[in-house]
Amino acid sequence: MNQIENASAETVGSYLCAVSNILEERWSEAAEIEIAPPDQQPAPTLMATDKVALLIGNLNYNNHPGLMAPTMDVHELANLLQQLGFRVVSLLDLTLQEMQAAIDKFLQLLDRGVYAVFYYAGHGYEHSGRNYLVAIDAPRPYRTENCVCVQKVMHNMQNRKAQLNVILLDTCRKWYKQKGPLSDIKPSAPLGNTVYGYATSEDAEAFEVQDGGKSTGIFTKYLNKHVLKPERVTHVLEQVSEDLGKDPLVRGRQVVEIRHTLTEPRALTDPVRTSGHTMELRRRDACWKQANVLPCRRSLDFQYCGVKVELSFSALFSNVLVVFATVRNSSAMAQDCTLILESEPQMQDIFSGSGRSEEMDSLLVNSGETPDCTLRLCCLQRLQGSLVIKVTLHYTHTQTKERLTESKQLDIGRPLIASCKLNQMRPVDRRQESRVHTVDHMSNIRYPHHQNHPRPGRPYTRKAENRLQSSAKSTSMSSNEPEENDEND
Prior knowledge:
It contains 9 helices and 24 strands.
């Protein structure tokens, strides 16, 4: 039997088979041979074994101008990524040690087949081709050792063999001339799975603006607009770049830069397939839950007056807990009940500044019913032990008309990121610690609570400031004029 190998278009035609011996020869009927294309196999569906994201927003700097936008930017992006099936850890206002510890914890969630997203909003700069993220406790002037090197983060992500590594930076990239060693980074293997999305190009600033009554980084504004689209992640960033390029506020001042080594059309919307990865998934699930489990709803009975108060909890971020207190039933003995919530230890409220509290209050109002009292507890990563909630009930005794007070306490342990003990994962540099000045106070929010938002205007800069501000310059920061960066310090 004859066999035709490597058939091509030239093979098409009529074929006859001949049989012969010494007596005669016989020919078969002609057979028409055609070449048909192989069945079109559907492209394999790209999948992840898990999807995890770490989002960090720094806004209240000890030695540099404060920012407004990281709060809402991180909150909204976290919600969108959760819709895509990501396990999200979102954190605000981290010191250098806390940033490093959070990144180390994040790396524990990465493994083969995992999609990983690292997002940062805050001050930043570029030095000798490397990008640095400024922690809230960075001194002035800071050096590379006071900041987190982005390229080092990506290198560590690649070492975990994740299937897709995406770094999104809503920060400035102004060149900063400074002395000091560069971060030691070894070259990584060409894995073809990395994506960088920079809010701006080299030696340029990134801006935040007032948009519809809320503060937003202009890069994240358009990122949030497109991130849910089922398209290759680089195509999503290209659409972000196109929209930002049309924005009249930053046209000619801020341009998105995209770098990648993708060899497959992977998208953030790709489904998660967990079969065959049960043990790894359980391990990651336990690690993720450690930073996101909320205290259970609790009821407190004030026996003397017969009033019951319900406490419920919500996480605005992985290190920001909100406690709601609601009087569920009063009694014939108590009238005009009011509540006050306090914590022990008292936790810092990073949203108490003008403009910031109003935005956070809007999130609480949208979350459902209006409680009688709310306590916002921030920076839970700094909690050293258990957190105790003190509920104080003020009421008027029906018969005596006296104004009386009763108190109850509830130990809720280490909620959210506090259970990860980030402050114990790395040794603290006491020289840095001495430069950190924080004011701890508690926040009791009562409703209604309305204040005017800052007026829309020109964009704020999101650069890293490197020089001491005079009082005159500090005054100018209240306007929306971008500041120029002084790189000579």
